[in-house]
Amino acid sequence: MGGYSPFIFTDNDEFIVIDQRFLPQIKKVKLENLNDTCMAIKDMIVRGAPLIGIVAAFGYYLAIKNAKDLDELNQASLTAYTNLLATRPTAVNLKWAVESQKKLIEQNAFLPVEKIIKKVRANAFGIFEDQKKADYEMAKNALVLFDKKMRILTHCNTGSFATGGIGTALGIIKYAAQQNLVEEVYVDETRPYFQGSRITAFELSKENINYKIVTDSACGILMQKKLIDCIIVGADRIAKNGDVANKVGTYCLAQLAKLHNVKFFVAAPESTIDRSLNNLSDLDIEIRDSSEILNFNGVNLAPDGAKALYFAFDVTPNYLIDSIITEKGIYRPDFEL
């Protein structure tokens, strides 16, 4: 369940990421500083809530690594914190990761600057390693939900290219497949970036797991014809009451799943749970540039002058969710996270 990684951070501090906009073609991009890191997150070179947090943590280190004294370090830290937080507002892992780096610097201000910088670097690797462990724990916890070989629908990409580990929802599918508990995976293409057909299908191919790509609009007929046993998705933010923000289209899937009596599961690390929010009714939903709907990789998909509205995420209310799976266990209704 591996063999590919969305990034490399070398002993010499070379930070190289795979540009996920071009997958399944492999195109690498070198991130040399804070501005490069912010661009990579904002422009979807890297994506997936856990991976965004990890990349931000390493970008934070790049931003402060050359500080000569505490004043310079604190200024670089504030700049990194502010700029990274501004890249994408919805996924909470980003905020969690940069706050972890900021607090580490504040709590170790009594140390020599060079030691603080080393701690920031180590913390970035720690966040990465913790995510990989969390992925495996999630996958193991989820097995109790598989009472037979399952036909699963999944949305967007929640695998190695979203977390750096085996993945959240897709990690569960990979792990269950190893236990011979997956009959087939339906991969919705996930417009407008096609993370499903480009990235999830790529990962399933590498794992030799049986799958079919379907259009986003086919989810209803798949359930109507009883071709799906459950839906497993990831999350970008989860409130205390179990409301889930995830890739736009998740809410539609959950509504149809409830209508057709199909189990709907959410998989995410504990770091995705925002316990400062009782619910997500007032969540700031990212609206991305309309060109991302009207064009794809330089190809015009609509007439000149066409307008578009692109919400990147939507919110699925807790009553549509059967279970939330994390590395700590399985939360069930009524959710009290």
UniProtKB/TrEMBL annotation:
SUPFAM superfamilies named in the record: NagB/RpiA/CoA transferase-like (SSF100950)
| InterPro entries recorded | IF-2B-related (IPR000649), IF-M1Pi (IPR005251), IF_2B-like_C (IPR042529), Initiation_fac_2B_a/b/d (IPR011559), M1Pi_N (IPR027363), NagB/RpiA_transferase-like (IPR037171)
Tell me which EC number(s) this protein carries: 5.3.1.23
Please verify whether the record's keywords include Phosphoprotein. Answer: no
User: If you read the UniProt record, what top EC class would you report for this enzyme, in one word?
Assistant: isomerase
What are the recorded GO MF terms, alphabetically? S-methyl-5-thioribose-1-phosphate isomerase activity
Is Chaperone a UniProt keyword of this protein? no
Q: Which UniProt keywords apply?
A: Isomerase
Biological process annotations from GO: L-methionine salvage from methylthioadenosine
**Record-linked NCBIfam families:** eIF-2B_rel, PRK05720.1, salvage_mtnA
Q: Which family does it belong to?
A: Belongs to the eIF-2B alpha/beta/delta subunits family. MtnA subfamily.
In Swiss-Prot or TrEMBL terms, this protein is called S-methyl-5-thioribose-1-phosphate isomerase
Per the UniProt record, the lineage of the source organism begins with: Bacteria, Pseudomonadati, Campylobacterota, Desulfurellia, Desulfurellales
